[in-house]
Amino acid sequence: MFRFVVFFAKQGDRFPIVIEKTKPYLDAVKVVSNDKELPIRVVLDVRAGHALMLNTSINNLQLPQKVVKAQLGVGLAGVINGHIGRVPKVRIGNYELTDVLTTFSDSSAFGVKITDQFPQRDGNLGGELLSRFKVTFNYEEGYIVLKPNKRRFKDAFEHDMSGMDVRAKGKGFRQYFVANVVENSPAFLAGLQEGDELLFINNESVEELALSELYQRFQRKEGKEMHVVVRRNGRLVSADFALKRII
Questions:
Q1: What pLDDT was estimated at residue 120?
Q2: Segment 54-84, tens digit of pLDDT
Q3: What pLDDT digit, counting tens, does each position of 212-233 carry?
Q4: How far apart are the first and last CA of the chain?
Q5: How far apart are CA 219 and CA 156, in angstroms?
Q6: Within a domain: residue 153?
Q7: Are residue 27 and residue 134 in the same domain, yes or no?
Q8: Domain count of the chain?
Q9: Is residue 214 helix, strand or coil?
Q10: Cβ(87)–Cβ(102) under 8 Å?
Q11: Which of 53, 108, 171, 174 is deepest in the core (most CB within 10 A)?
Q12: Closest alpha carbon to 92 in 142, 135, 34
């Protein structure tokens, strides 16, 4: 299902960046949408958990045929809604990645924030994509060097396969609650509900997991059996389901 094409440079490839308002912008990225190659400007955000986020206002950009609705985050104007789908190809110079998991914001408030507070951009590259490379920033001379991370470059881009959207709360943000359950997803069919507090995943206490590690448990191989224990209205409830690729 997943295919990666790349021409490796021994020391990596250098790409010019533009620094505006302390943020690095890269113009060497192209995405393929509806069989058209679209050059885009992105901000590099290594702290963002997603792989790629695109603004739906990009000329000739079309949503993939298969998408799922999702809450992308919370901003000053409230919840940022959008869709998640797969972009067939993303190219950075000679590096090419396919079936890249991409978020598409459809919140008008989010679009206003980008236009008013930041230089013109078409989206951003997040940590999930940039972690496929060893990234070296040279702010003084205005460039980055990308060298493929051989251990991660060929990793498939995966989304949650449970159908649960989880939020962290409490001391140290180590209490995890189900914020949303996708209809007809594995978690939905297993009876999990919004407001459930996650306690154990396959007999492993979630208190020992960071949120990113918890999400990784639900991004593993399709078909993997999951046993989940939650607290609901003061009582313990268990649920069993198999992971299934939703997007």
A1: 79
A2: 988 888 888 898 888 776 665 555 567 788 9
A3: 788 889 988 899 999 999 999 9
A4: 12
A5: 10
A6: no
A7: yes
A8: 2
A9: helix
A10: yes
A11: 53
A12: 135
